[in-house]
Amino acid sequence: MAPDDAQIINMSKIKRIVPLFLCLSVWLAGPAQKAKNGTLASKPISQDLFGIFFEDISYAADGGLYAELIQNRSFEYNPGDKDAWAEDRHGWDAFTAWDYTNNGYGYGNISLETKEPINPNNTHYVVVNVEEEGSEGVGLINHGFDGIAIKENGQYNFSAFIRLLKCSSMSFEIKLLDKKGDTIGLANFTVNSTNWKKYAATIRAGRTDDSCSFAIVAKSKGQFALDMVSLFPQNTFKNEVNGLRPDLAQLLVDLHPKFMRFPGGCLVHGDGLGNMYCWKNTIGPIEQRIEQKNIWNYHQTVGLGYFEYFRLCEDVGAKPLPIVAAGVSCQNSGGTWRSGSNGQRGLPMDEMQHYIQDVLDLIEWANGPVTSTWGAKRAEAGHPSPFHLEYIGIGNEDKQTDAFRERFKMIYDAVKAKHPEITVVGTVGPSPSGEDYDLGWKFADQEKVPVVDEHYYEKPEWFLSNSSRYDSYDRSKLKVYVGEYASQGNTLFNALAEAVYMTSLERNGDEVRMASYAPLFANKDHTSWNPNLIYFNNTAIVPTANYYVQQLFSSNAGDKYFSNIISFEKTRDSLVGGSCVLDTKTGDVILKLANAGNLPVTAVIDLSSFGLLNATADQTVLTGHPDDQNSFTNPRTVTPSYSSVTVRRKFGYTIIPYSLIVIRLSRS
User: Fold this and answer.
1) 41 alpha-carbon distance from chain centroid
2) Annotated catalytic residue, options 173, 308, 397, 484
3) Domains, in order of start, for the chain
4) pLDDT digits (tens, 9 = 90+) for 451-484
């Protein structure tokens, strides 16, 4: 082999990643194939290919990404939030997460009331009657979501709506309590109004504690009504009011998503027509938002609502992709999935025009000028400039029935007529094949829906054997959004099966418009679905091996795909995948090489047609034992390693077993 065709490796750097005997191998390769006109064969890739999908499942919002520390802050929890088969349904009510306290020999009582609420959207509140305040006061203790985690010297913003009922003034204490009941944070304030009024104070935590409680107690006799009790860390993501938990939000930033789909998922069409997600219920002051049952068998406060979703998209640089129900409820409503019957129900036709107007109002709210009705409401919330909405999804995994098709068409036609600039995403059922899939594609073709949403949760072997799925799709028709997919596990092998598949998504990036792994977040102690991309509790976060695969693809995306740059010697069926893309903004050439098998595989790489590239490239390697997976005891079992590597125009590369390798080459 001629010296100028050899690949020169900096072994002092690469040896930190893999054993010496598995380092790069050198092979002689022929020239890259070119198009007939002599240029390098390429095709465009969607610039929105890799994104994220957020759904309030497994306590992803309340008790998760949403930074509120008080659970059931407005006493709106209801026994109906929990289905009859839920193990923890007993005791789930308006006082969930709350306890009455009269320590220090105080005396009084509490009651739940609805007669004179803050507003009609927030009907429940608590009345506390203090007959003897004692030494510690009388009031309520909240235990948060599995405890309240605080940090030493952290500042925590309290607020609550209070009105006096039988007195002219009352003094209050708010406290952070440890497990023994000792106070580790304290603040005071006075209430002197017989009308509902918002009161605020700040508590400093005296020390770090991962299982605190919060107490609000009256220190004088009297009677008061209490609602919307809130405790937020001042340190939220970007220090935003009504903001997000910063460590979880930062994980989203680090994914470099091109879009974010929200708020579901099954959450959107809900458990019955009365549980359909209504975006208008989730904007405005939090005390005016309408809370409701979560289809995943708990409660949603919608404190994380449409304004916060759009703001998050803006913060992480992702295009918003809101999903609205297609005028029908989930086919599994009422637990009908157990019997195999269809629980889908359609909105009455005399309600459809009102519903369609809600969808059109959403687009105006996102994009309209401040002089428009709904653009003014966006501005009132603190965002006068438009959110630049480009996409809207109609429906989610819906059963293909006449009721669905009729209502979808009504919504789709109205959006297309009023807002031709908006790209509508349709749906073709919950599986990668079958009746709903076939009928869904037929209907979408008939209506010329621009993009359709395919979902699949399959074994890793399915992903490996279906990497040519989109090679034969008709490019002249509809585009695809792979809205939900996962390989049913969080081991490295699962992640690498997804990586092999994702190289095929890049190869078909002219047909596949977008793709997002699902679900995104799960509280490890309240998990509704497995697997997930990120697990967390109150104090720790665990990005999975799957997370790092998503991160490596999304942060190394390109907008042009080049064929015939990478070929494999003695490939092992579908266990290996590779792609070569170009980021035209930076000029970088990016190689992705995935091996889900137990033997090394040689990739032959020919970069000669790209012109001058720097001899030193950035290299990232994700590898390990196939059964490795990150956990709360060892969250860094599988993480990427970074190094530099020296390359030549033509070279061979040995892809070690069970690995994903990304090589990024910049222009000279």
Assistant:
1) 36
2) 397
3) 3-45+559-665 (2.60.40.1180), 52-66+237-457 (3.20.20.80), 79-233 (2.60.120.260)
4) 999 999 999 999 999 999 999 999 999 999 999 9
